[in-house]
Design a protein that fits this description.
By secondary structure, the chain is of the alpha/beta class. The protein has a single domain, classed as Aldolase class I (TIM Barrel, Alpha-Beta Barrel). The protein contains nine helices and eight strands. An eight-stranded parallel beta barrel has the order 1-2-3-4-5-6-7-8, surrounded by five helices. The longest helix has 17 residues, at 41-57. The two termini are 14 Å apart.
Length: 201
């Protein structure tokens, strides 16, 4: 079962990521994605081990962004693959059968491609402008989500991502989106987790 609220970790350093993950777990988050950029794989591995200790204490699922070998090594709940990362079908052969694979999509074609490759969920975005991601793809908004989901008609859970705030959630869910991934809002205020969960449930 894929959770409806994903926290994507943020921080200027690996330690900041860990502090933010700890805070989010304290506040009741049930799924965390460790998303370290511009560091080497060994740093990701060491940080992932520590993140796994934190998340295990809270029975929180840990997803590793990009690095599927790290996800395998630390026995994370799964991996999230960006558009330029490894092919989900190849990664599936490497991972344990219980580990989940998510993929990033921006267009209808991306979504269909990921569904064919049997991902467990799709992160679809960006919903609106966000500073978290460089080289931002075309912003989709409510209309973009509605149109895509209508054409897709899929059972695969679609997770909205990209600059989502608490005020956006109700209208996003009305489009048929399954859940959301949040980064900045939760990092700034972990008390928002309970509010997000309330609206999502």
């Amino acid at each position: 079962m894929i959770n409806k609220l994903h926290y994507i970790s943020q921080g200027a350093t690996p330690q900041e990521h860990l502090n933010n993950i700890q805070n989010a777990c304290n506040a009741g988050i049930e799924l965390v994605q460790l998303r370290l950029k511009n560091v080497d794989e060994n740093t990701v591995l060491e940080t992932a081990k520590k993140a796994k200790e934190i998340t295990d204490n809270f029975q929180t699922k840990l997803i590793i962004n990009d690095y599927y070998k790290v996800a395998l090594a630390v026995k994370a709940a799964g991996v999230h693959l960006g558009k330029t990362d490894a092919c989900p079908l190849e990664v599936r052969k490497e991972l344990e059968s219980w580990q989940i694979i998510g993929g990033t999509a921006n267009t209808l074609e991306d979504c269909k491609n990921l569904i064919e490759k049997k991902v467990d969920y799709i992160g679809l975005g960006p919903f609106q402008f966000t500073k978290t991601k460089k080289n931002l793809s075309q912003v989709l908004g409510i209309e973009g989500y509605r149109k895509l989901l209508k054409e897709l008609k899929t059972e695969t859970p679609i997770i909205g991502i990209g600059g989502i705030t608490l005020n956006d959630v109700s209208s996003i869910l009305e489009t048929g989106i399954y859940g959301i991934a949040v980064s900045g809002v939760i990092t700034k205020d972990v008390n928002s987790i309970a509010k997000f969960q309330e609206v999502l449930n």
